[in-house]
Amino acid sequence: MKSKQMWVPALLSLTLIGALSGCGSDTSSQVDGADAAASVKVMKLGQVTDSGWSGKINPNQEVKIVSKTSGKVTAVNVEEGALVKKGDVLVQLETDDLVQQLKQAEFGVIASNAKLADTLAGARSQDLRAAESAVRAAEATQAQTNAAVEQGKAGLEVATHIYNSLRNQFDSSSAVTKEDMDRGQLEFEKARTGYDQAMAASQAAAAQANAAKARLELAQAGATDNTIKALKADVDRLNATVVLANNSVNNAAITAPADGMVIKRTIQPGEMAQPGVALFSIVDMSQVQVELSVTDTQIGKVKAGTAVEVKVANVPDQTFPGTITFVSPISNANSNTFPVKVTVDNKDGLLFAGTIAEVHMQNTSPSKLEVPKSAIIKKDGKNYVAKVEGDIAHLMEVQTSDKNQDWVFVEAGANLQANQQIVVNPNDKIVEGGKLKVE
């Protein structure tokens, strides 16, 4: 009788548990979970936010110091790790040859100025007499070349007549041999060449005579405005040469273009510096840039001038204020991410180039977790995930939003956080409080 009394309540309890389990009762889950452990696979939740990104820290400015000219290094004034100011002389090159080139250019300016002064003063009487003599000599040469032209012309006419006669006889009879024809043609070619040369010499002599007359006229009339302009231009050209030579002397002292720290040195005294070859690398770390890649779904929320918070692993207990200073309107090649730069003050030198920084916008929305759609349990029009604590399952109701065809976002809360484990492919055996066997 006692056994029967115990069996009836047990039957009623099982009946009640079966009814409650259809409604998602915690009591039903605990009893079913106690009966058998469900074999499951689990995953660890990863956290994402719409306003948080990771990026690499870069110097605010990195400059490679090069020489503008080639030259032997006489002194190197800084070592790696040195702090330099803009204008500090880092390397000195030899200047002996450069100084001589500067002096030569200065002497050229003196000569050009003297020539301009003489021209402005007008021609001297001896200069006029020399110009007249030059004209007479050129005219005499021209007369001689003209006579040579006439002589060459006559010779060409005779040679042409003989050659034509030989060719006609050669074509019509055998009285003229091939050798006679060849000699006649050779004499014709020589006569034509001589005439051409005489013509060229005559033309050259005429040009020289004209040039001599022009110089005489110029000397008699004095310098024209164009001549004065040309001489003044020559003075300016030589002054520019002086400036260039002086720049070469100044460029022999290679200076720092900005404040910073020397992080690399590749030159030693006695070596040859070459144009464009890096001698030093200097970085400015007073501010740093965090370079981010922001997806196309988030870029619309990112604006230049927005204040952000930056965290780095080597200073875990400190947050650095930063500002978004650049948002690219063009995505990276072969991806849907956009370059974004954040400027952060680094006056204390705690941020190092090359390290990874986390960037978060201020007043951000709640954190979200990424969950595969296969992990979602749908029951009574609601969505749940099975959180695993030890070997016990806990059904957590979640609000989801699509990420892609395989994943959804769920909001993190007090009962569901990043790095907690959930069941990947839950089955009907998983209930609230039920035991699990993790594979």
TrEMBL record:
Keyword terms, alphabetized: Coiled coil, Signal
Position of the signal peptide: 1-21
The YknX-like C-terminal permuted SH3-like domain, residue ranges: 369-437
SUPFAM superfamilies in the record: HlyD-like secretion proteins
Domain (CusB-like beta-barrel) ranges: 290-364
Domain of life according to the entry: Bacteria
Major location category of this protein: other
Stretches assigned to the Multidrug resistance protein MdtA-like barrel-sandwich hybrid domain: 62-283
Subcellular location: Cell envelope
Keyword flag Protein transport: no
Listed Gene3D superfamilies: 2.40.30.170, 2.40.420.20, 2.40.50.100, Helix hairpin bin
Family indicated by similarity: Belongs to the membrane fusion protein (MFP) (TC 8.A.1) family.
Protein name per UniProt: Efflux RND transporter periplasmic adaptor subunit
